[in-house]
Design a protein that fits this description.
Elements (H helix, E strand, L loop, with lengths): L10 E2 L2 E2 L3 H21 L3 H5 L11 H82 L4 E4 L4 E4 L1
Antiparallel strand pairs: 1-2, 3-4
Helix pairs in contact: 1-3
């Protein structure tokens, strides 16, 4: 197994994780307890065994090997869970960042639309004033003035 440090001991979604030494220690205690039961000749667990089922206990080494194998599987599963959680947090962070950028772009579009409408209104006012000035100029100098502004749909002979 060769693990450098203990597993995290934390409650993760209701699951308690113990260190390898805690699990191996608990296994040793269980094996010692089973050995004591064999010496005394009584085990409350024997009463729970269905009739016809083998009542021989596994050897100490077999139990340790089984526990270590299961522990390896649990460690690998836990590491996969942590990696998945990190990936999920990264995706959620990217989604939040993208959402924030989209909201900023939408805000800029709204502001640009408002500014464009204001500019168009102002240009219409300028065209109207220009038309008035041109017609006044033509009247003062006694000549006809033709105002042509195709982009605004204005054509007038004054």
């Amino acid at each position: 197994m060769g693990q450098a440090g203990p597993l995290l001991q934390a409650a993760v979604g209701g699951l308690q994780v113990q260190t390898r030494s805690q699990i191996v220690g608990a296994t040793h205690e269980k094996c010692d307890s089973e050995q004591d039961e064999r010496q005394v000749g009584y085990s409350p667990r024997l009463e729970e065994v269905p009739s016809g089922a083998p009542t021989e206990k596994k050897s100490h080494n077999k139990i340790l090997t089984t526990v270590e194998t299961r522990l390896d599987v649990l460690e690998a599963s836990l590491e996969e869970l942590y990696q998945g959680q990190r990936r999920l947090l990264g995706v959620e962070s990217s989604q939040e960042e993208a959402k924030s950028r989209i909201e900023k772009v939408e805000s800029l579009i709204d502001q640009l639309t408002k500014d464009t409408k204001d500019s168009v209104r102002h240009l219409h006012e300028v065209v109207a004033e220009l038309g008035e000035v041109s017609s006044l100029h033509g009247l003062l100098h006694g000549c006809s003035v033709i105002v042509v502004m195709p982009s605004f749909g204005v054509r007038a002979v004054l």
